[in-house]
Automatic annotation (TrEMBL):
One Pfam family this sequence matches: Prismane
Catalytic function, reaction form: CO + 2 oxidized [2Fe-2S]-[ferredoxin] + H2O = 2 reduced [2Fe-2S]-[ferredoxin] + CO2 + 2 H(+)
E.C. numbers: 1.2.7.4
Requisite cofactors: [4Fe-4S] cluster
Alphabetized UniProt keyword annotations: 4Fe-4S, Iron, Iron-sulfur, Metal-binding, Nickel, Oxidoreductase
Signal peptide limits: none
Organism annotation: Blautia hominis
Name of the molecule in the record: Carbon monoxide dehydrogenase
InterPro entries in alphabetical order: CO_DH_a-bundle, CODH, HCP/CODH, Prismane-like_a/b-sand, Prismane-like_sf
Enzyme class of the recorded protein, top EC level: oxidoreductase
């Protein structure tokens, strides 16, 4: 076995610089250049103090003009902007979940989509009080899907999955009017509250932001996760590879990018089809390689072992290799720049969703009824494009790391069962993990999530924080682009136990796990909520008492703000490396970093210095341990 070595951010950057040289030959643009054109950023926007929600303005708050034309002060303006930002993220994640509900509703024994985890479907049905006895599995799937779809618009009640939280958390939500009602109602209510002439009181705006976030985390995202597992299989540990070196020069390279696994699963099916592989060989290729970018990549990696080409800010890099026959996208986090960039090469930029239509793309509409037919067309289109490559532009950086991915909550519990004494211990619980934490073998856990972001040095915060935390015996669960940063660096290789403290290293050896556990895509942060809730129940504690914190050091999207709101809303203190455009209001800063503790027992910490951010997380974990006397 070759000697294990982490890949550094400097090595990532050197590989990117070489790709940008290729881009320069064909006049290609890239985000690195666009950042320079957009710098310096608007200070009013950064502080959240500009308002354009009516046409009396736009207004911006200064010492000379402390109120907008309507009389709203800076605290109301920043609060409304924050709530609108959250609503956008909650709507986006939850619409992803809605699409998965619709896909489940369309599943059939002879259809494009089938039920791959019937046991999980039955468990959810029972959890929701749906009769399962004697029912055809597809009749049950349709009933569960329809019940799930009703969560979006039901006129009464709160989200069904809230019952998964410890009673203490449910009581906090009820007491403070934070329990989310219908998902669409919370998004709509957020937009109503932030309309001209409605709420301008920061406390009310932040409370609604938390409720809208919770409707995402315990509603739309959780359904997206659970029903994806039912349709495509609940993830379990699987070996894969990460970074641009997973692309294969002699093969047809198809890159899937976005968030909805309904598309990528079908692409993978047809890329494995012997007929398609034979056709690729006829066209001069040796085979077909599917790799992924962003959360779609996480989805197919954890279920199929499909390699991860990169995260958010590497999406242009896959085209710059000159070896990408097609980049196939669905929704969210897709650069409109991919259209013009692909035209500089031979790459086909294929959009598939009416929600994400872009210039300079080939639109092949994808839906549950025609999924097989359209996926086959996309794979065939990519194969036929292989001959159009320009060999002089082909350069794939030979850089990749091994990764073990697919640690769903169920998979983590199964791994813990492997280290229990079956004679005396109870199986199927998180108690072995709690015992490691109580004894001090592990100090705690960090949920590392979020995008990478050109406002900071991409991937550096994720990787450096992870290295610091695991060296201090803190285990990490990761999702989204943060997980891909870890995988690219090698922190999801089981051999990475050697960069851990003695306690975490021992746990990794006994449980046969890497120190950074891959939990999936961004909607799969809902898995982290379930894990935290289960740990709290097994320990007899509030979630807020667990030595666990959340961290998004490089976040950039509205979805990330929604996530942050539901993570603190669930009792988990959350640490950010990028300010959420709220620093222009002292009242908003005070509420977000302290005031929310009164409602949900958790709050945000914003710290742009990576070293200080890591120290603050460790200090918070130790503070929670001390409060428990462990």
């Amino acid at each position: 076995m070759s000697e294990f070595k982490l890949t550094t951010v400097e090595e990532f950057e050197a590989a990117t610089a070489r790709l940008l040289e290729t881009g320069a030959k064909v006049g290609a643009d890239a985000w690195q250049f666009r950042v320079k054109n957009q710098t310096p950023h608007c200070k009013f926007g950064e502080e959240g103090v500009c308002c354009r929600i009516c046409t009396m303005g736009p207004c911006r708050i200064t010492k000379k003009a402390p109120r907008g034309i309507c009389g709203c002060d800076v605290h109301g303006i920043v609060g409304r902007n924050y709530l609108k930002f959250t609503a956008g993220g909650s709507a986006t994640h939850s619409d992803h979940g809605r699409e998965i509900c619709h896909t489940l509703y369309e599943s059939a024994a002879d259809g494009c989509y089938k039920v791959k985890d019937p046991d999980k479907l039955i468990r959810i049905a029972k959890e929701w009080g749906i009769e399962t006895e004697g029912k055809d599995i597809y009749d049950l799937a349709h009933e569960v899907a329809e019940t799930g779809l009703m969560e979006y618009g039901k006129p009464f009640g709160t989200q069904r999955f809230l019952k998964r939280a410890p009673e203490s958390q449910q009581e906090l939500w009820e007491k403070n009017e934070l329990a989310p009602r219908a998902i669409d109602r919370e998004v709509s209510c957020s937009l109503h509250m932030s309309h001209m002439g409605c709420s301008s009181k920061p406390e009310a705006l932040v409370k609604q932001a938390i409720r809208a976030g919770l409707s995402d985390g315990w509603g739309g995202s959780m359904m997206g996760t659970e029903f994806s597992d039912v349709l495509f299989g609940t993830p379990k540990p699987i070996e894969t590879e990460a970074n641009l070196g997973v692309m294969v020069e002699d093969n047809v390279n198809i890159v899937v990018h976005g968030h909805d696994p309904s598309l990528s699963e079908m692409i993978c099916e047809f890329a494995d089809d012997p007929e398609m592989i034979a056709y690729a060989k006829e066209q001069g290729a040796k085979g077909i390689t599917v790799s992924g970018v962003c959360c779609t990549s996480n989805e197919v990696a954890m279920r199929r072992g499909i390699p991860m080409a990169g995260n958010f800010l590497q999406q242009e890099n896959v085209v710059l290799t000159g070896a990408c026959e097609a980049i196939v996208v669905d929704v969210q986090c897709i650069f409109p720049a991919l259209g013009p960039l692909s035209k500089c090469f031979h790459t086909k930029f294929i959009t598939t969703s009416p929600i994400a239509q872009m210039p300079d793309s080939e639109f092949i509409r994808f839906d549950a009824h025609t999924a097989g037919e359209k996926a086959k067309l996309i794979v065939r289109t990519a194969i036929e494009n292989f001959k159009n490559r320009k060999p002089e532009l082909v350069h794939i950086p030979q850089m990749k790391q091994k990764a073990t991915v697919g640690y769903s909550t169920e998979a983590i519990v199964k791994a813990l069962d492997g280290v229990t004494n079956s004679q005396v211990d109870e199986l199927g619980t998180t108690k072995p993990l709690l015992e490691c934490i109580t004894s001090g073998v592990l100090r705690g856990a960090v949920a590392m999530v979020g995008c990478n972001n050109p406002r900071v040095r991409p991937d550096l915060a994720h990787i450096e924080l992870m290295k610091k935390l695991v060296a201090n015996d803190i285990i990490i669960i990761a999702s989204g682009c943060s997980a891909q940063a870890a995988a690219k660096a090698g922190l999801m290789d089981k051999r990475a136990k050697d960069v851990c403290g003695a306690g975490l290293k021992r746990v990794c050896e006994l449980a046969d796990i890497p120190p950074v556990l891959h939990m999936g895509s961004c909607v799969d942060i809902s898995r982290m909520l379930v894990l935290a809730a289960t740990l709290a129940k097994d320990a007899g504690l509030h979630i807020s008492q667990l030595p666990v914190v959340g961290c998004a050091p490089e976040w950039m999207s509205e979805k990330a703000v929604s996530i942050g709101n539901y993570v603190i809303g669930s009792g988990i203190d959350t640490f950010l490396g990028v300010d959420p455009y709220a620093c222009g209001s002292s009242e908003m800063v005070e509420i977000l970093t302290n005031g929310t503790k009164e409602w949900v027992e958790a709050a945000f910490t914003v710290e742009k210095d990576i070293e200080k951010l890591g120290d603050a997380m460790i200090a918070k974990i130790e503070e929670k341990r001390a409060a428990l006397g462990i």
